């Protein structure tokens, strides 16, 4: 993406995110209207829906020919990745928002014909906006980020998903044992930020497109790898176990699948 | 403890903690001098040791007849809980400090004849000092805290320890499944703060005295329960699996041990 194009989008999307943050903080000290989706651990609140609705309205106005894939389904029914596609998670880590009022994120990204172009990932309570574009690099708020060290799995902390660990899916317990320790934060967006910052060498979870599409663009710009657990490249419409990791950690995790 | 006595200690200990925080932040952007203790996951840095040394010196001056039990062993060789005893963890979550520069704590507490009197728990990067005394309540910085809701395990997030979960010690995987989700933060001090704030309904881990002595005083003042996993009262010199939880969550966890 051209830098001027990116800067134009960055100004707009940052304003949309500020509006979404303000909406979240307005509801911060009052009881939320919480509904279950697929089960008691899969929640949605009126804040998720209001934020998605506003993002969809802004994108329709600013990028009228684009399609929109949003977690709450208020965008389009997207079955392929052709053309301009915005992928949005208006409030990632809804359980954390409901129960902890901490560790939740807002994510938006733009793909063209399946290729990531620009991404915005906001750690709301940490006041950290990670943003960047293909070929231009990544910023944390106003500071350009440097690539994290390419540490092996054995020299880093591993962010994993609770259900994958307790059911030992894809050798998750061996991966935890090979690392310096397992961490579980309960938000894909927040877990991605820790790998981007070099605080953790990998994050592995069962992810849907809006959980990883944004983080993938930022991670790849910083020399990290996003793949399926057996080393394949996920499309942005994939559902499954996806990881983000340093090159060395990814190699070790993929090797453990066939060992 | 008398309020005036507590306020006197609070002014002193807060100043010691501010000094320890300043020492931590001084080393924040430079490589640390890291040593392994019992293994590759059990670390100590020069910052842990310097902070413990300073706390010991301050306590020796302000409370000369007291004994001191510190994680790094720079206090006394304490084999019983008689008399005045300070229990200190100069930097809890050393792995997080080394690898993430986040999610670590400082903890100090005063016991007399085995009974908790006053406690200070500092979430350094969160800028949150939890402090309080027996019979006086708990403050988060300058604000008096209210007791968290007595939620059941099934309505809250559960903070657990990675090794206990992967080895399924004491039915940890069933406890995770019964909760709304498992979280692992890698610092006993930080995990205690989340239960104190009502963000999580329990925290269970293999803990040593300096890991839980401080949190225990604060938790009990807020109507929470600290016990062994089978419902016994731990002494402040206990080593073992210890939990802090709401009354309802503790009851469910203890019941699962004999089910």
From TrEMBL, chains A, B:
Cofactor section: Mg(2+)
Record bears the keyword Signal: no
Amino-acid positions noted as binding Mg(2+) in the UniProt annotation, renumbered to this chain: 71, 89, 91-92, 211
GO molecular function, one term: metal ion binding
GO biological process: inositol metabolic process; signal transduction
Pfam families xrefs: Inositol_P
Superkingdom of origin organism: Bacteria
Presence of the UniProt keyword Metal-binding in the record: yes
Transmembrane segments: none
Keywords, sorted A to Z: Hydrolase, Magnesium, Metal-binding
PANTHER family referenced in this protein's UniProt entry, alphabetically: INOSITOL MONOPHOSPHATASE, INOSITOL-1-MONOPHOSPHATASE-RELATED
Name under which the protein is recorded: Fructose-1 6-bisphosphatase
């Amino acid at each position: 993406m051209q830098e001027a194009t990116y800067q134009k989008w960055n100004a707009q999307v940052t304003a949309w995110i500020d509006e979404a943050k303000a909406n979240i903080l307005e509801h911060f000290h009052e009881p939320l209207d919480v509904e279950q989706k697929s089960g008691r651990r899969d929640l949605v609140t009126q804040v998720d829906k209001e934020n998605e609705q506003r993002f969809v309205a802004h994108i329709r106005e600013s990028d009228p020919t684009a399609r929109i894939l949003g977690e709450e389904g208020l965008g389009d029914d997207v079955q392929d990745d052709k053309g301009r596609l915005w992928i949005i998670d208006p409030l990632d880590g809804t359980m954390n928002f409901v129960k902890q009022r901490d560790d939740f994120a807002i994510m938006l990204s733009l793909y063209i014909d399946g290729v990531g172009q620009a991404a915005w990932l906001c750690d709301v309570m940490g006041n950290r906006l990670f943003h960047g574009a293909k070929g231009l690099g990544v910023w944390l708020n106003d500071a350009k980020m440097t690539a994290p060290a390419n540490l092996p799995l054995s020299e880093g902390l591993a962010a994993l998903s609770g259900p994958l660990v307790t059911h030992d899916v894809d050798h998750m317990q061996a991966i935890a044992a090979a690392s310096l320790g397992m961490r579980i934060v309960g938000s894909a967006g927040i877990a991605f930020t820790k790998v981007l910052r070099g605080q953790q060498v990998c994050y592995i979870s069962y992810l849907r497109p809006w959980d990883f599409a944004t983080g993938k663009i930022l991670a790849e710009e910083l020399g990290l790898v996003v793949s399926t657990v057996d080393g394949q490249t996920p499309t942005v419409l994939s559902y499954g176990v996806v990881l983000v990791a340093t090159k060395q950690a990814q190699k070790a995790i993929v090797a453990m699948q066939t060992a």
